[in-house]
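Severity: low
Component: inverse-folding endpoint
Summary: output formatting inconsistent between runs
Steps to reproduce: submit the following structure tokens with default settings.
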């Protein structure tokens, strides 16, 4: 991404959010988790509960810049002029979550091959791996109703999500949400690793060694404490940005 310059009319807080969100799009591309021009990552604007930033539809994730991110309202309408439009398939999901869960400030939707394979299975995610155990008690499930285009599905998604941070869209993909871009990205990375390991373990055959409920709860509690209190997610995000920039320069 070429060096960007903050528009004089934009506040520093919004500009920093735009830069960070553009980095998040580039990281998802760097790790190979994109679905060509589809899928979406959104970030709610600080101090503005009704507006969020999202990608212009038709651009590759590598083409996202702080400047071309769209600012939209909870109905998916652009609140600032842009030559681009947003992907209508993202409005139902993102506007539903941002409208109902004010603790979620960043929402990432993907359907990588390992994740799509796991969410197609009736039992969904296993919590018996190192990464799976960190998701214990955090995963909600929503039945597939077709492409998420329609507002009528919003309430059902929110009811199924409840107070969780990972929404499995059965037979489709996932949405992960956290109170910052860094935490949402780390959560996505953890879910992706859990799915990769689950797929590999399943391909091996044989019986998995189960973890106890106590150990799984301990893992998810410790992970939540680490992410919440230590700044770990920020360190991880910044390190991944540096790695990406060093290898793509």
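Observed output (run 2 of 3):
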């Amino acid at each position: 991404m070429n060096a960007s310059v903050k528009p004089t009319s934009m506040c520093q807080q919004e500009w920093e959010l735009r830069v960070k969100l553009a980095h998040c799009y580039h990281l998802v591309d760097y790790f190979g988790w994109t679905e060509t021009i589809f899928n979406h990552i959104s970030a709610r604007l600080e101090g503005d509960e009704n507006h969020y930033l999202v990608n212009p539809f038709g651009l590759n994730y590598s083409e996202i810049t702080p400047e071309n991110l769209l600012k939209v309202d909870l109905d998916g309408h652009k609140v600032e002029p842009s030559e681009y439009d947003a992907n209508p398939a993202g409005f139902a999901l993102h506007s539903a979550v941002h409208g109902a869960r004010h603790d979620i400030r960043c929402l990432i939707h993907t359907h990588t091959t390992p994740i799509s394979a796991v969410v197609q299975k009736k039992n969904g995610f296993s919590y018996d791996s190192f990464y799976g155990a960190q998701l214990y008690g955090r995963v909600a499930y929503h039945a597939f109703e077709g492409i998420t285009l329609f507002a009528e599905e919003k309430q059902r998604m929110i009811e199924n999500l409840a107070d969780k941070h990972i929404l499995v869209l059965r037979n489709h993909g996932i949405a992960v949400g956290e109170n910052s871009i860094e935490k949402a990205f780390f959560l996505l990375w953890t879910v992706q690793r859990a799915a990769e390991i689950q797929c590999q373990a399943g391909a091996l055959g044989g019986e998995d060694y189960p973890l106890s409920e106590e150990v799984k709860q301990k893992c998810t509690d410790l992970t939540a404490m680490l992410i919440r209190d230590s700044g770990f997610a920020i360190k991880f995000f910044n390190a991944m940005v540096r790695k990406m920039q060093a290898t793509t320069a």
